């Protein structure tokens, strides 16, 4: 009986399987041959030293080691990771980057190429553009030079570029902004120079941008639209002078050792995901945003080596994750917060070179920080307004100001001036300078409404008072101690346990704001000490118990028991000489506020 022929369909199936197997074997053999060439070029020190051409068919089954890992998918090489952990071996003397990447071109499905510490040298060849499937390129810790090759632009799937610790030079090309899928760009420790291209702002998927230890200079482009950016490291460059515009989703921000001046951006305190902030060794001036210490996730904070001023308070709070703080070499005054004091061995805190009163590490006298802070010219950023133009913030310092209007814009409140009489010296308080609008807490010093007697200028250091101290001094703010009341709050006479008298103004806050909204203003107020100014002795914040926002501010001043200037002029009938002397003393107080002289 004759055998029945196989159905044609079954024959086709066998033929198809046979051809696919043969093609697969041929493809694998082709890629293995290319890999063998790569191994010879790189002179692998480990993993492949026993491999020869008779074994190349098993490339995808090579056991992973710390030096070499090969990943295959469906018989195609998709990932190559190499690293010389012990620097054993070296590329041969006839090494060629062109030949190396020509071999890589034979791996059409290669998605990850990581050649770390291989001793590679020379520029990246144009043939890198043939690796069209490449998603991750890591050539760090080699001796590569030349410019960043434009052929990377042809790699449409490229997501990560890591070229750290090489000798690349030239500019960061503007076409980098056209690598639309880029999520990580790291070019640390090279010799790149020039300004950063504005096209960086187009990399909307970018999560990591590390350009530290190069020679970049100029302004950092606006990166505020990069909502996915989590790590930004621009340290050890020459960038500045303005603080960059950034989105508040950052987790790590490193701007160490640049040429950044002026102050930190105002919205930095809203970076609630921030875990590491390093702005040390710059030229920053202006107030230190104290609320950075209490950001919910902050673990590392370094502002050392700048010219920040501000007053720290013992009762300030610190974030639960804060493990490293360096406040060294600034102009900070006040008390070291108790949450930063020794006692927690796992927390490292450095604060030498400031003017703190309760600190163990070496400090300057208060006068040093006071004088240095006055000498620093603070130029705030211009901020975009909601209207047609920008709202101009006056740039000035206490020493260099040229107009009282500028002084008001900076928020100086309670303008005081002394004036002299023939028998008794008095001082004038320019009041109505305080508004409970938090952004203008001490803004608008216009009206002379009270006059008090001049006392000696040997005053105690400005400090933070406890609420219990003020309650005890005023018999719990008894109406018997009320000496004045206006639209901005009452003023009480207080007597401390040492019999010293003070005047305490109570200001109720209409809006709920954190302590950082007011610290700059009370710090500025603390510096207004002059022969013709009534001096502030300190302040006290009262908080809302439910959210720790400031509910009331108490300002403590010298108490001088005199009447108002109007009372003196209308009741005592001073001579013209006394009137002229009074006017001169008032002018001297205003001159100090304008010029610092």
Automatic annotation (TrEMBL):
InterPro entries in the record: Kinase-like_dom_sf, Leu-rich_rpt, LRR_dom_sf, Prot_kinase_dom, RLP23-like, Ser-Thr/Tyr_kinase_cat_dom
* Subcellular location per the Swiss-Prot or TrEMBL entry: Membrane
Q: Mention any Pfam family matching this sequence.
A: LRR_8
Q: Keywords, A to Z?
A: Glycoprotein, Leucine-rich repeat, Membrane, Receptor, Repeat, Signal, Transmembrane, Transmembrane helix
Q: Does the keyword Repeat apply?
A: yes
Q: Which Gene3D superfamilies match?
A: Ribonuclease Inhibitor, Transferase(Phosphotransferase) domain 1
Q: What cellular component terms from Gene Ontology apply here?
A: membrane
TM stretches of this protein = 392-416
Q: How does it sit in the membrane?
A: Single-pass type I membrane protein
Q: Where is the signal peptide?
A: 1-21
Question: Protein kinase domain location, by residue?
Answer: 477-597
Single GO molecular-function term?
protein kinase activity
User: Which PROSITE patterns does this entry report, sorted A to Z?
Assistant: PROTEIN_KINASE_DOM
Q: What is this protein called?
A: Protein kinase domain-containing protein
């Amino acid at each position: 009986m004759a055998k029945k022929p196989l159905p044609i369909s079954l024959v086709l199936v066998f033929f198809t399987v046979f051809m696919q197997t043969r093609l697969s074997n041929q493809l694998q053999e082709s890629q293995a041959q290319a890999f063998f060439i790569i191994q010879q070029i790189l002179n692998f020190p480990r993993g492949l030293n026993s491999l020869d051409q008779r074994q190349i068919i098993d490339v995808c089954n090579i056991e992973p080691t710390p030096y070499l890992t090969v990943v295959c998918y469906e018989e195609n090489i998709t990932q190559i990771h190499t690293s010389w952990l012990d620097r054993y071996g070296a590329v041969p003397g006839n090494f060629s980057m062109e030949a190396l990447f020509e071999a890589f071109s034979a791996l059409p499905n290669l998605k990850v190429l990581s050649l770390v510490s291989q001793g590679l040298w020379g520029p990246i060849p144009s043939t890198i553009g043939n690796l069209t499937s490449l998603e991750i390129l890591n050539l760090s810790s080699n001796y590569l030079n030349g410019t960043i090759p434009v052929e990377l632009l042809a790699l449409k799937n490229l997501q990560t570029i890591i070229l750290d610790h090489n000798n690349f030079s030239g500019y960061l090309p503007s076409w980098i902004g056209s690598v639309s899928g880029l999520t990580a760009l790291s070019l640390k420790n090279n010799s790149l120079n020039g300004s950063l291209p504005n096209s960086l702002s187009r990399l909307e998927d970018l999560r990591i941008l590390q350009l530290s230890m190069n020679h970049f200079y100029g302004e950092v482009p606006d990166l505020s639209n990069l909502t996915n950016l989590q790590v930004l490291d621009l340290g050890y460059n020459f960038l500045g002078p303005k603080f960059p515009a950034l989105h508040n989703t950052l987790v790590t921000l490193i701007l160490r050792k640049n040429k950044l001046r002026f102050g930190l951006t105002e919205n930095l305190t809203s970076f609630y995901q921030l875990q590491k902030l390093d702005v040390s060794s710059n030229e920053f001036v202006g107030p230190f945003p104290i609320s950075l210490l209490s950001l919910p996730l902050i673990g590392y904070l370094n502002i050392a080596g700048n010219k920040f001023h501000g007053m720290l308070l013992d009762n300030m709070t610190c974030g639960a994750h804060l493990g490293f703080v360096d406040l060294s070499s600034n102009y900070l005054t006040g008390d070291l917060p108790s949450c930063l004091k020794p006692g927690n061995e796992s927390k490292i805190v450095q604060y030498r070179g400031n003017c703190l009163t309760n600190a163990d590490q070496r400090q300057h006298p208060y006068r040093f920080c006071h004088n240095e802070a006055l000498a620093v010219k603070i130029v705030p950023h211009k901020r975009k307004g909601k209207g047609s133009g920008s709202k101009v913030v006056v740039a000035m310092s206490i020493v260099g100001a040229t107009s009282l209007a500028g002084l008001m814009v900076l928020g100086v409140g309670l303008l005081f001036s002394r004036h002299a009489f023939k028998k008794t010296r008095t001082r004038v308080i320019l009041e109505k300078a305080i508004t409970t609008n938090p952004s203008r807490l001490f803004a608008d010093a216009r009206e002379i409404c009270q006059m008090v007697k001049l006392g000696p200028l040997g005053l105690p250091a400005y400090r933070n008072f406890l609420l219990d101290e003020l309650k005890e001094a005023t018999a719990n703010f008894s109406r018997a101690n009320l000496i004045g009341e206006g639209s901005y709050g009452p003023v009480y006479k207080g007597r401390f346990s040492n019999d010293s008298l003070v005047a305490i103004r109570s200001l109720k806050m209409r809006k709920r704001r954190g302590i950082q909204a007011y610290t700059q203003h009370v710090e500025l107020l603390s510096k207004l000490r002059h022969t013709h100014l009534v001096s502030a002795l300190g302040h006290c914040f009262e908080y809302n118990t439910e959210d720790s926002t400031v509910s009331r501010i108490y300002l403590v001043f010298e108490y001088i028991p005199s009447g108002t200037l109007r009372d003196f002029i209308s009741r005592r009938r001073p001579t013209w000489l006394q009137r002229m002397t009074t006017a001169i003393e008032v002018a001297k107080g205003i001159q100090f506020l304008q010029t610092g002289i």
